[in-house]
Amino acid sequence: MIDLVKNFSISARRMKKSVIRELLKLTHRPDIISFAGGLPDPATFPEAEIKDIVDDVLTRHPHTSLQYGPTEGIPALRQEIARWMTRSGAKVEVENILVTTASQQGLDLVAKIFIDPSDPVIVELPSYVGGLQAFSAYGARMIGVPTDDDGIIVDLLEKKLEMLQHEMEHYKFIYLVPDFQNPAGVTLSPERRQKVIEMGDKYNVLIIEDTPYRELRYSGEDPPSLYGLCDSGNVISLHTFSKILTPGLRVGWVVAHPDIIHKLTVAKQATDLCTASLPQDIAAEFLRRDLMEDHIEKIKEIYLKKRDCMLNALDEFMPKHPQLRWTRPDGGLFLWLTVPEWVDCEEMFFDAVEHNVAYVVGNAFHCDGGGANTMRLNFSYPSEEQIREGIKRLAGVLKAHIKNKQPTEDEVDYIV
Length: 416
Ligand SMILES: Cc1ncc(COP(=O)(O)O)c(C=O)c1O
Known about the structure:
Elements: H1 4-7, H2 10-14, H3 19-24, E1 33-34, H4 47-60, H5 62-65, H6 75-87, E2 97-100, H7 102-114, E3 120-125, H8 129-137, E4 141-148, E5 151-152, H9 154-166, E6 173-176, H10 190-203, E7 206-210, H11 226-229, E8 235-240, E9 252-255, H12 258-272, H13 277-288, H14 292-317, E10 325-326, E11 334-338, H15 345-354, E12 357-358, E13 360-361, E14 374-378, H16 384-404, H17 409-415
Parallel strand pairs: 1-12, 3-4, 3-6, 6-7, 7-8
Antiparallel strand pairs: 2-9, 4-5, 8-9, 10-11, 11-14, 13-14
Helix pairs in contact: 4-13, 6-13, 7-8, 7-12, 9-10, 14-16
The chain binds pyridoxal-5'-phosphate.
């Protein structure tokens, strides 16, 4: 065989195996309780409705459902998405919408049309790993800005923007997961949303709002979306049916200014010509029959219980330690645990797997190599019984690591 390494493109050589996927391979044993994945609970899939819709559309218009479709997405779906989003207060017209093969494709297309090698883009610390992968494939230089319980810290964001402007760097966009973030579960506060929009305008930078979890709120009030707050066309908003219908459909959509939609459409033509028509018909018909709202209520009922179950188990089983804390998300699928700084979550991972419990090491979500003492826990997939038992096991492993690895007084002096 030819020398592949020599023949791979620069961007293919840049693509790295996901640490998460490698570690997840260890967690497929049936006796392991895994908080590592990010899968929806299959009990939330509306199987009967989808069966009925497939039967219906294949009877009414098999030739279009099984045919190629327009790159922008089938007209019925774009119209239904516009109707659904408008009902929840957004100003969205059909020409603002591009249907994508779920939001991961949205991320790839955004990277494809905006990033040249070495272009700086701003991401959160921590940030969605699939976003980091998509941007780095195109050679982006990721610049991380820390987050807290209210999302990205806007003062630090402004410092970075000022610095880049001062250095005459042509930064491309700020990438945010503002609602129940993957991985940390935190939500950008309304005040910070306003500031982010102002900064986008002031520094002339685009904002990518990636929001797969926005509809999955279990407590608290919805802040306005970044897209809704912005009048200048500077926000590109990525959405998906993966978490509110099923990820197997692989249907999502981008909402943006028509000029951006046009360029994304051209980029999508070379990627997959169009998103598969039958899944688009399913999503369109689900919306047309007005099934979505009730369906989302059902999903929320299931996940609310699971979230509370995980929070209660953490309160009950985790050791009390001033450096041990976790986020209390109002929605989404994840929460984020920060452990004392001398505990290395990657090292502890193998011990956790020995004790039949798994998580994702937080380091994988940090573009700056940080986050060694953090982890992401998923509560949507395991059952409530598994959540309790899994957190109990994890607490046992963590207790041992906190105690065994605690620096001695001499070491503390030395570290100081
Ligand atoms: C923040 C974020 N963006 C994008 C995606 C990709 O989702 P999909 O491609 O299934 O729409 C995910 C999946 O978990 C995610 O958490």
